[in-house]
Amino acid sequence: MAMIEVSNLKKSFGKLDVLKQLTFTVNKNDVVAVIGPSGSGKSTMLRSLVHLEQIDAGSISVVGEYLVKDGVYPRLPEIKQITSKMGMVFQHFNLFPHLTVQENLEIAPKLVKKASASELRQRSTELLGKIGLTNRAKAYPANLSGGQKQRVAIARALMMDPEILLFDEPTSALDPELTGEVLQVMKDLAEEQMTMIVVTHEMGFAKEVANRVIFMDDGEIVESGHPSEIFTNPQFDRTKVFLNRSF
Amino acid sequence: MSIDYIISILKPMLEGAQMTVLLFIIAIVVSIPLGFLLTLAVSSIIKPLSWLAQAYIYIMRGTPLLLQLLFICFGLPMIPGIGEYLVLDRFVAASLGFILNYAAYFAEIFRGGLLAIDKGQYEASQVLGLNKWQMTTRIIMPQMFRIALPAVANESVTLVKDTALLYAVAVPELLHFAETAVNRDFTIVPFVVAGIIYLVMTLVLTIVFKWIEKRFRFE
What we know:
The structure holds two protein chains of two kinds. By secondary structure, chain A is of the alpha/beta class. Chain A is built from nine helices and ten strands. In chain A, strand 9 (212-217) and strand 10 (220-225) form a beta hairpin. In chain A, helix 3 (101-112) crosses helix 4. Chain A binds chain B through residues 50-52, 80, 83-84, 86-88, 90, 92-98, 107-108, 111-112, 140-143, 156-157, 160, and chain B through 118, 120-121, 123-124, 126-130, 134, 138-139, 142-143, 146, 216, 218-219.
């Protein structure tokens, strides 16, 4: 079942064409790793899916509903309803610094879903256990390590019960020794059949955890396929050059 | 120089200080929310509103507070036709002047706070489904006030000292009583006492703000 269908997506910043005619599908339970050089449009593509960027042409449908059809967006309430199916994890975490870890988890479902306090407490406590941060519930983000912050950010996204989780370079801002703990949480999610799109420079993760790799360069999808194909037998020179530099 | 003398001048000076404190409280309580509204107006997408707010801030920051006070106290009543309806009680007029002037400064301070907030905070709020109102009140404003706190504290200390401008529009405050005593008794002791009273007031204020800063450190 297609969770996300993108067709002929185009996006430019002024004269610069950032995304040129992107077309791809993400199926249920897919873990898609999006790789490619900096400036290839990976992040812009991901941000377009949650309406942090507005696209110029093409269509995006999410679980069967159009977020944008042939470049035309519906009204804001509809957009909100459609994007609410997706959660997003940012490179720089973007935790709310004035709220404790547990408050960070609970604020959105409290305000948006009007969930009851006891229900929220139960769910947030459960998720904190899952990411191994039960003892940090009352800490403020300033007192967490980068890896802990990113794990909290993942838990915060999960609090909204998304059907699809998007990761925008989730480990790029972390010290190398802290990436493991974040990748482990993502691996656990993949094992629980969460549908995920991960823009990443972590080739190890792409190889081990993803069931599909999309290689982007210069605003285009150069090739995509199972990691075993892409990593061992890339079809295009651009892919080969990039992979040679990355390993 | 006797303790008795100091005690004798202390009573009227402390009464004057009450006026200072009263003006301070009125000015701060009204100008902070007003300043915040001005910040919102400046960053509004409604251009004429933004221009109006910017012009207001420019005028209020670009002219001396003393001139503004004199204008409100003595200038307004001289406007032909409507002047007679604009004769305000001196203290009321002065309070108005302080409020209007300080609101402009607070607006700039809060604007600085807004600019310091990372755009990732807006993006995270949006992706989590918060609406504009929820984002502004629950995510942006608390951070903005926190960032602005040291500058607000600084401005508040300035306000305490600026209350001495009441002297110029003949509202009897701390400095007025000090000066009267200096002229009458031919000694500078009342000035020293006045200075100490100001120092005590700003010290209390500093301690209060330090406490607030600590309370909202988010660490």
